[in-house]
Design brief:
Elements lengths: L9 H17 L4 H7 L5 H8 L18 H13 L3 H4 L8 H8 L2 H13 L4 E4 L15 E5 L2 E12 L6 E7 L9 E7 L5 E6 L10 E12 L3 E2 L5 H7 L1 H29 L1 E2 L2 E2 L4 H29 L5 H26 L9 H9 L9 H9 L3
Parallel strand pairs: 1-4
Antiparallel strand pairs: 2-3, 3-7, 4-5, 5-8, 6-7, 9-10
Helix pairs in contact: 1-4, 4-9, 9-10, 9-11, 9-12, 10-11, 11-12, 11-13
Length: 380
């Protein structure tokens, strides 16, 4: 086994310890209070920036720590492996839009926003989903009409993760509604811009310490200089980062499933029923053996995918396979783990309950399982 290549270098593992210690210090003790207020404290991101965790994949030239995409994955995995991570939502992964800016932004945009993201001064979000459109991005109705050196933006978004605290929203708009996906553009919008209005912080099944809100654009004026890329390039820009986004979701889902398994093994070794430990029942052993095998297969596929990503050759099909299989596997694992907990598994005081509700969203955001199947089927 020692000869199997790992995508993680010694530097990545040192960084992992930094992230793990930070979450134990700043997330775990606060997560219950944040569940009550349905949003983390704002200084959570600033502290993460000071610890060198935000914008992990950003080069030093733009204020980042000079890491790579695997550093970004480490943050996702440690969020998944942390008990409080199931409640925080996107949390520290709110820096994902930084890759869009890094790869497609002007130098002015990069130098203005990326250092703020890396320091935790600017929390980001991507505003795509609308009340009548989910996975069908081409059907968005929010428009941006050119008016001299500005766009006038009208429309609304919903289910926007981190929208309550975001300082920067990457907003998908239609600059030419007649062209479908080719008429979509992206705007870098400072959330203090007049005409942007935040709606309700929506109540959710799980991830209750993370915020999801509605955003409304009422004749919002955005300078043309805030457009990311050229007009009509928005769909392509979003698709260009889709493989890494979906691999990030899969990696975190795997870590959450592993945590559910580990907690369950610990529980059944201590819980007694009918005069013996629950672990001693053959049904328990067979169930855990099946889950262990699924987790091992998932880890192998993730590691191989990360090696490809590090070489710049990760494709959308592989990332779709990773997201489809691992998030579906996560659902199976946490369901069986709740079952092995018995009634305790249904109680919020046990972390397995929060892992169960958090797991349900991974088959939806970043592209539903159905969209993953469609994407894979197109290559057959």
């Amino acid at each position: 086994m020692s000869n199997i290549q790992s995508p993680y270098s010694e530097h990545h593992e040192i960084f992992r310890n930094t992230v793990r210690n930070f979450l134990a210090r700043e997330l775990t003790p606060n997560v219950e209070a944040w569940e009550e207020q349905r949003v983390p404290d704002r200084d959570f991101w600033r502290k993460a920036g000071a610890a060198g965790i935000m914008g992990a994949g950003l080069p030093e030239e733009y204020g980042g720590p000079g890491g790579d995409f695997i550093h970004h994955i480490v943050v996702a995995e440690e969020l998944g492996a942390c008990i409080g991570g199931a409640s925080i939502g996107v949390g520290l992964q709110s820096d994902l839009p930084s890759f869009h800016i890094l790869n497609f932004g002007t130098e002015e945009q990069k130098h203005y926003w990326l250092p703020k993201i890396a320091s935790g001064e600017a929390v980001t979000t991507v505003a795509m989903t609308e009340p009548n459109t989910g996975s069908d991005l081409a059907a968005i109705r929010t428009t941006a009409t050119r008016d001299g050196n500005h766009y006038i933006v009208r429309g609304s978004k919903v289910y926007i993760s981190g929208g309550q605290v975001a300082d920067l929203a990457v907003v998908a708009v239609k600059t030419d509604p007649s062209k479908g996906s080719k008429g979509i553009s992206l705007l870098l919008v400072d959330t203090k811009t007049p005409g942007l209005r935040r709606g309700r912080n929506l109540k959710k099944m799980g991830m209750k310490a993370g915020d999801n809100v509605e955003l409304f654009f009422d004749d919002m004026r955005v300078p043309v200089s805030c457009r990311l890329g050229e007009e009509g390039q928005g769909f392509g820009i979003l698709m260009s980062e889709l493989a890494r986004e979906r691999l990030t979701i899969a990696a975190r889902a795997l870590a959450e499933a592993q945590l559910a398994y580990d907690l369950t093994v610990e529980y059944v070794k201590s819980r007694e029923a009918f005069g013996k430990k629950v672990i001693e029942f053959q049904n328990t052993q067979f169930t855990l053996a099946t889950l262990k095998a699924e987790l091992a297969v998932g880890r192998s596929f993730i590691n191989e995918s990360l090696l490809l990503a590090a070489q710049g050759i990760l494709d959308n099909t592989r990332s779709a396979i990773a997201k489809l299989w691992i998030t579906e596997m996560q659902g199976r694992v946490v369901d069986q783990c709740v079952q092995l907990h018995g009634g305790a598994g249904y109680m919020d005081e046990y972390p397995i309950s929060k892992l169960y509700t958090a797991a349900r969203i991974t088959r939806i955001f970043g592209g539903t399982s159905e969209i993953m199947r469609l994407s894979i089927a197109r290559t057959i």
